Amino acid sequence: MSEQRPTFEGEVFYPSAEVVAGARVKDWEALARRAANDLTGFWGAEAEELEWTRKWDKVLDDSDKPFFKWFAGGQTNIVQNCLDRHQRTWRKNKLSLVWVGEKGDVRTYSYFALNRDVSKFANVLKAMGVRRGDRVTIYMPRVPEIVIAMLASAKIGAVHSVVYGGFSVDALQGRIEDSESRVVITADGGFMNGKVVELKRTVDDAVRRCPTVETVIVVQRTGHEVKMEAGRDYWYHDLMKLPLASGHCPTEVMESTDPLYVLYTSGTTGKPKGIVHAHGGYMVGIYATLKYVFDVKDEDRYWCAADPGWVTGHSYIVYGPLLCGATTFMYEGAPTYPYPNRWWHLVEKYGLTILYTAPTAIRGLMRFGESWPNRHDLSTLRLLGSVGEPINPEAWKWYHRVIGKGRCPIMDTWWQTETGMFMITPVPTMPLKPGSATRPFFGQEAEILDDAGKPVPDGEEGYLVLKRPWPAMMSTIYKDPERMAKQYWSKYPGKYTAGDAAKRDKDGYFWVIGRTDDVIKVSGYRLGTAEIESALVSHPAVAEAAVIGLPHEVKGQAIHCYCLLRQGFKPSPELEDEVKQHVATHLGPIVRPEKVTFVDALPKTRSGKIMRRVLKARAQGLPEGDVSTLEE
Ligand code: WTA
Fold first, then answer.
1. Record's family (predicted)?
2. Among candidates 606, 600, 582, which has minimal Cα distance to 592?
3. Structure confidence at residue 2 (pLDDT)
């Protein structure tokens, strides 16, 4: 790797000789070329590194676009590759999971132990009547049992639907309803910031309105008093003691294209979309991306600080690391509890080597100053990562200098729930530019287009599209395949429209700017304005509402609401607080609005659609753009 690459413009961080010496991929350009020239050859070779009960007939069947079928005809189960195959090697005794609770309690699982508990719980689920193809909703804190529940569901061929524990009753209810789950797995509560998050109570409220649910399995985490409904609610620890919960359970053989999970994510309408990922392609995609991008090795202690309830957790806390046979680390609580050095203390104490987190966390910890990380030995770290939103160069450089001590390359990975795996991302030996996710992953090609579908010149903003299929691509939207075809593949036929605005520079590096639709990213969490608006209008005082995201120093974006009051209600600071609390109660504390403004009118098109773009421009004192369709 030449250190002086005169063609790269802007601020560039070249990989050190040490990074290059230790890297799996030294010549990324050669590999990129090879994958570009032979997409199916590249992915076929990756798939060969994993176990299949029956080999695929075809790496990629694209006869029914955009419903691409990867490894069609192949049979496997992602759990066979996450757990079963490691039992036959020395990795059986390797740590699979190291978990630390907010209070400092520690639990560790070897690959053997994790496999045993997953098998036990798989037998429990079977005894509860869960069959292949059934959906199981998981609503849990960050404890090992969430990993066990996901894997147990996959092992028996069921389809898990994890709902992030920071969501509240309406969000949970909508997701249970859409998935028609008969079983919900939860906990009495979780610890966050020294407080108990009442998960069971939220489940009780949601389930009351969901007639499909027959069984609720409750993990005891906090030990506080919760209501257990006879005949419906069971303690996890009681079930795991039953003779039927044996440590042996065959792993269901799945078709490559059979669904592994559904994960609800916000879109342009109020109804979240159930993004479906399948066993085979998804498995190969996340295995290869984690291997190449975070260069995971047996010596590593890898920490993805996300929550398993989001796609980042699905792909890169739970499945990816286990596919790679890695040791994965998980921490239950808040980064600042009890002090802002908690994360750095964890890195030192557990000798963590890879840290993958979101820009909002970095900005949040940056505020407390360098003295907190500087009190700790962070020398075990060798790679850092970022995900969820664009990282501002200032935060990138702080992360690089203060946490990585200038030694650790930062993998800024751009991807989505829908893509399942990293799409635009560096590998450790690539020259890095702060704020750019660099280039498409091996085999992928991206492009920036204008409204008419013409590529915009380098340096100009446009719509980000992906040109080639990839194995972890979503297989469908649950119960609504048409919506997938329409939403992602119709704007530019044959190309995947990501919903993001971006630029490309002269070096072919991509700079993601943000969403072009009604999705906002708050602290990296993906939220839909429509879902928030519907929570707002469920408040008795609110007649109409519009929600936009505005820049926020730490959160990236914050939720700003504009509400039209019903007759008889007057604006007041008390009402503003009440409305904010209403949203938090219904959707979750992470969805609490930053600001609620009461207005007399909302800007609308003549056909009655709220023009959020205009609200956004006004709030920021920017030109309103084309307002020719604006109603008088
Ligand atoms: C944004 C999260 C810039 C983007 C994995 C995308 C990013 C949305 C990055 C998907 C990044 C994610 N740089 N923006 N490295 N990573 N995004 O589905 O707007 O929660 O469309 O998946 O997050 O959010 P999701």
1. Belongs to the ATP-dependent AMP-binding enzyme family.
2. 582
3. 45
Asked whether residue 99 carries a pLDDT value surpassing 70, the answer given is yes
CA of 524 to the centre of ligand 1 (A): 8
CATH 3.40.50.980 region(s) of the chain?
108-251
Neighbour count for residue 493 (Cβ, 10 Å): 9
CA of 282 to the centre of ligand 1 (A): 18
Atom 3, ligand 1: residue with shortest CA distance: 390
Q: What is the DSSP letter of 622?
A: -
- Select the CATH number that applies to the domain covering 108-251 from these four: 3.40.190.10, 3.30.720.210, 3.30.1490.190, 3.40.50.980: 3.40.50.980
Which residues' Cβ are closer than 6 Å to ligand 1?
A: 265, 310-312, 386-390, 412-417, 437, 498-500, 512, 514-515, 521, 526
- As for the ipTM of the complex, it is 0.99
d(CA 616, CA 629): 16
Question: 423: which strand partners?
Answer: none
Residue nearest to atom 6 of ligand 1 (CA): 416
d(CA 248, ligand 1 centre) in Å = 39
Expressed in angstroms and rounded, the spacing between residue 274 Cα and the centre of ligand 1 is: 17
Nearest CA to ligand 1 atom 15: 414
- Ordered strands of the 233-235 beta sheet: 233-235, 215-219, 183-187, 135-139, 159-162, 259-265, 273-278, 476-477
Q: What is the pTM of this model?
A: 0.96
**Which ligand 1 atom is the nearest neighbour of the CA of 418?**
18
Minimal-distance CA residue to ligand 1 atom 22: 416
- Residue ranges matching CATH 3.40.50.12780 in the chain: 17-81+272-514
Nearest CA to ligand 1 atom 24: 416
Angstrom CA distances, 22 to 294, 382, 428, 433, stand at: 12, 10, 10, 21
Residue 161: pLDDT above 90? yes
Ligand 1 centroid from CA 445, angstroms: 17
| Predicted pLDDT at 632 | 59
CA-proximal residue: ligand 1, atom 4 (nearest)? 389
Residue 433: strand, helix, or coil = coil
Average pLDDT, rounded, for the chain = 96
- Distance from the CA of 424 to the center of ligand 1, in angstroms? 10
Residues forming CATH 3.30.300.30 domain(s) in the chain = 522-620
Check if CATH label 3.40.630.30 holds for domain 522-620. Answer: no
Distance 515 CA to ligand 1 centre (A): 9
| Alpha-carbon distance values, 587 to 105, 163, 524, 528 (Å) | 30, 12, 16, 11
Model confidence at 316, in pLDDT bands (50, 70, 90)? very high
